[in-house]
């Protein structure tokens, strides 16, 4: 995603990171908008790493 941040991992850890990021920005800004899109695909661990490796192999 060109204008966003991708996070991959167990949902409890992912939500913890999202909350920390949001809280950090909220402590510095008067308004923070955090949009979250969830693609929950069982058994697809490490897909971000595989995608990066696929692109690098073509460069």
UniProtKB/TrEMBL annotation:
GO cellular component, one term: cytosol
Taxonomic superkingdom: Bacteria
Pfam families reported in the protein's UniProt record: Thiamine_BP
Transmembrane domains' residue ranges: none
Domain Thiamine-binding protein residues, every copy: 1-56
SUPFAM superfamilies: MTH1187/YkoF-like
Family note: Belongs to the UPF0045 family.
Protein's UniProt name: Thiamine-binding protein
Source organism: Desulfomonile tiedjei
């Amino acid at each position: 995603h060109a204008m966003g941040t991708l996070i991959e991992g167990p949902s409890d850890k992912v939500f913890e990171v999202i909350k920390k990021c949001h809280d950090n920005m909220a402590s510095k800004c008067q308004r923070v908008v955090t949009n979250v899109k969830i693609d929950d695909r069982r058994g697809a661990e490490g897909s971000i790493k595989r995608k990066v490796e696929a692109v690098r192999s073509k460069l």
